[in-house]
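#random but structural
TW: two for the price of one
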Amino acid sequence: MYFKGVGLPEKKTHEVTINFYSKINPDKIISKNTSRCIEFVISKADTKASYWPKLTNDKTKPHWLKVDFNRWKDEGSDDEREEGDNAMSLDDMLRTANDNKLSFDDLDEDQDDSDDEAMPGLTEDKDEEKK
């Protein structure tokens, strides 16, 4: 895949050729231009093929290439699942947990706890006593 663009505010030209691990479907490439970066969703040509061990066939990972773990799919996950299905992201789980506030109403306040023991008094330093 070949990409060329101009970054702001320096108006610096960026150009890259990405050699993918295997063939991709160029008709299914989706791009999103944000204020900080450009994101691509790229589909493999053979959707039934096994997972790629890496994105490119280069020996080293380019420093500018990042993994979006919010979109990560494990090898055993269901590829057919759409976002609208019953899938819940980590953000959704945390938001749900935050909405279900914990209640301490069912705790027994009369029950003894090791934290309730009296604290020992402060002792003076032996050097202080000699003065």
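TW: number two ↓
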Amino acid sequence: MIGEIGSKHTVFIPDMMPSLLDLLNDETPAVARQAVKTGTDLFAKVLQELVIQGLFSSGGIDESLKSSWEWMLKLKSAVSLMAFQPTSNEGVRMLAVKFVEKTVLMHTPDPNITSDPPNQATEDTGFNIAWLRGGHPLLNVGDLAMEASQSLGLLLEQLKSPKIRLLSTSMIIVFVTSLSAIAQRRPSFYGRILPVLLSLDPANTIIKVQIPGAFHALKSAIDACLKCTHSSAEPWRARLLEAQNIINQGDSIAANDSNAGRSAGDTSNRAESLPLTETRT
């Protein structure tokens, strides 16, 4: 109900947010998950409305919208904290990671949308944070970019040792897919994201062939990044192709070992892992 009312009438958001923040920590997992989902939707709604109103309204920004944005900042702090802390409720943490992914995307320029704001706003306008380069009464594009960079750094840290060793397979998949999504939609981050993804060595971390979900999430991420045609992706193409070949070799070895295991009566279905990167001296 909070999400439905807030999405249609942002003026009521300040009155509902204390309850939503409390629900983030509800002991019932389904309730906490829904609170994060609702918060993600409201954050996107308020930020878009704030951008549009600041650019196109001659009367300035409504006080209720300013108040709503202050609550969104509190929400962002709370949910972001949940994304990077171990918890027994991994379903909530996964959604919190997706929230952080959403904020990184919304706080950075979209290369697929013109950086020049339209002459007037419509229902289908959408928005590009790059429109704020000419100024905004409440938002600073430089500050938002810095926040996005810091959030991206926290996401990347989760897939580095020693933190990655504390993650479950499900959480590894979520972090890999979120970083892959950011790389695909914001190719300017390739230089930060791909070195981390390419350093996920199946022999030395828990990204192993015998954990198919995590391994194939990494494979899908590399395949998707190879399809990017943005100029920022070109310098990484050779490295991505190399990683793709190694992963494909790993798939072949896994299949062969699996067949051999069945023939010999071995049901362990394990395969030797292959590194995604070679040590260069």
